[in-house]
Amino acid sequence: MTIASSSPPSRLPLGGAEGDLTVPKTQGAKAREGQGDGRLAALFLAPAMLGFLVFLLWPTLRGVYLSFTRFNLLTPAEWVGLDNYVRMVNDPIFWNSLWVTVEYVVINIGVQTVAALAIAVLLQRLTQSAVLRGIVLTPYLMSNVVAGLVWLWILDTQLGIGNEIIGAIGVDRIPFLADETWAIPTIALINVWRHVGYTALLLFAGLQAIPNDMYEAAKVDGAGEWRMFWRITMPLLRPVLAVVLIMTVIGSFQVFDTVAVTTAGGPANATNVLQYYIYGSAFGRFQFGYASAMSVALLVVLSAITVLQYRLTRAGRSDLG
C-alpha cells in the first residue's frame, strides 16, 4: 500500500508564462553585460574621437600656442608673449577685414534666412514634392569654388552674360566684382544662391514637426495664412530656426573660397574678409604666429556670438508641448 506524502511538492518559480522557468540575472551578470555594451560603444566612437583629437583638438591647441610665438616654418617658434595680439589691435587692415566680414555676414544671413524661410513655408503649405526639394537643393551640390567661378563669368563686366543682358535693356554695365560698393553684396548673394536651398530644407524639416491640427483649428477660427504664420509657424519653428542661424552665422564668418576665386580680397581690400587675411598672413607672408593670433580672436568672437544667440533665441526650449 502506498502512503501519500503530506507535504506539498516543491515548485520552481514560474515566469511570465505558465511553466516558463526563469532564473533572474545576478548583479554580476548585469554588470558584465553593461561593460560589454560600453566596450562596443567605445569601439564605434573610436574613429570619430581619433579624428576629433588629431584634426580638431590638437590643431586648436597648437594654434593657441603659436599665437604667442613668432613662427615662419623655417626657424623654431620664438616665444613673444602678447606681441601678436598687440599688433592685431593696432593693425588697421585687421579691423577693416573684421568690418568687411561683418558686412558680408549681415547681408548673407539676412537675405538667406528670409529667402529660405519663404521657400520652406511654400514647400510645406503648397506642395511637398520630392522633385521640387531636389531642385531647390541642386545649387548646394556645387562646390564654393565652382559656384564662384560660374558667377565670375556670368557677372564679368565685358563678356559676362549677366552684363550683356543689362546692356541689352539699355542700362550701363555694372562692375559687380570690381567695384568697392558692389563687391561684398555680390559675393554675399552668390553664397545665398548656393546655400539657400540647404537652409530651406533644414527649416522644412522643422516645419514637418508642427502638427497640422493646429493649422486646421486656426482655419476654423477664421485665421488667414499670414496670421497662422506669425502665431503658429514662427513660435513653433523657433528652436530649429535658432540652430540654423547659429550654423549659418558660424559658416558665414568663415567665408574664404568665393573670395579667393572671384576678387582675391580686392578691389582695395574691399573684400579682404578675415579668413582671407589670415590665409595671406600665414601662407603669403609666412607670419604663422600673427595668423594664429587672428584665428584665436576669430574663435573667441564666434564662441561669444554662439552663446549669445543660444541664449537670446532660447534654442534649447520649444513652445511645442
From TrEMBL:
Topological category with respect to the lipid bilayer: Multi-pass membrane protein
Pfam families per UniProt: BPD_transp_1 (PF00528)
Entry keywords, A to Z: Cell membrane, Membrane, Transmembrane, Transmembrane helix, Transport
Keyword Transport on entry: yes
Organism: Streptomyces viridochromogenes Tue57
Protein name, as recorded: Putative Binding-protein-dependent transport system inner membrane component
Domain ABC transmembrane type-1: 98-309
PROSITE patterns named among the record's database cross-references: ABC_TM1
